[in-house]
Amino acid sequence: DKGNHRHFMLKEIYEQPVVVAQTLRSYIRPVEQMVALPDMAFDLAAVERVVIVACGTASYVGMIGKYWIERFARLPVEVDVASEFRYRDPVLPPGTLGVVVSQSGETADTLAALRHMKESGVTTAGIINVPTSSMAREVDLLLSTHAGPEIGVASTKAFTCQLAVMAALSVNLARAKGRLDAEQERAVVRALIAAPETISAALAYDEAIAGMAGTIAGARDVLYLGRGPEYPMALEGALKLKEISYIHAEGYASGEMKHGPIALIDEAVPLIVLAPSGPLFDKTVSNMQEAQARGAQVVLISDAAGIAQAGENTIATIEMPEVHPLIAPLVYAVPVQLLAYHVAVAKGTDVDQPRNLAKSVTVE
Ligand code: F6R
User: How does it assemble (predicted)?
Assistant: First the structure.
């Protein structure tokens, strides 16, 4: 049932504050302001490195998780797409924690990667939305997302719930490794507790985004830029736009622009820049300005301070609330999803059932 919404995708975008809160409830003790994972049969303190494997949108959760686990737990993290991981010869020494991320829990390549890890003697955890799925049954530690059934083929609410669980896992690993004291943990947990409300605040820009979608709908190509955890968000933005609007889009790490893609820039290629205020802002904006000097038509997604500083000479700005850097990806997912959605609606494509795509990819 789509409720009052025109598409399942829009309904699921709007469910995010509720389902992220619901998911976090299983992983946070609000009174103690602590993260708590379910009981497990192994010791997180013994983890020496983490390998995260997934496909598509779920693989971007892995890339964001790498930033978090390295920052908080100071453990080396490797991330790969499942179809590559399983056919190379991954080195999986003792002390490796293997993590799979999957909405369906049935994606053939991710399931095969999980089995490969288990056969190699690796302890595994799975961030999974369907609790009865094959992966949910086979992982050593099931970390459920509580997004509810996701009907739209393009993943939205499952993605932000996966990020919420990944954040909790990162913090728990950090504590287990003695790299985060109680004070620091409380600060991070407060940021997570604020996420649902901040996602709601981001949803308030829906109409503004719908209003500017027309400027993107006519483009043949679109580029997305971000730095740090916003780099995987740029990849996610490009994937969402491609799959539902059929516009060719690419995401790049901001600093990679000048190593090739800047040659694509002209007035006909909109450039979507994801740049929350913070330590990475100035660098990202200087990459954006290099592109503007070559005629790029920029859409800047930032907060009020960022827009005040760098919003000039853009074709549009999308203002996000101010956010703790940890939850920025959960919040910036919203404008990225809404932009793809409204561009697809403007183009008249089948938003919930894009051509050539299936919800669950059970073939290799
Ligand atoms: C994109 C999308 C896909 C899935 C991928 C993995 O919007 O939905 O890229 O993320 O097919 O699927 P799961 O998470 O079911 O393993």
Answer: Homodimer.
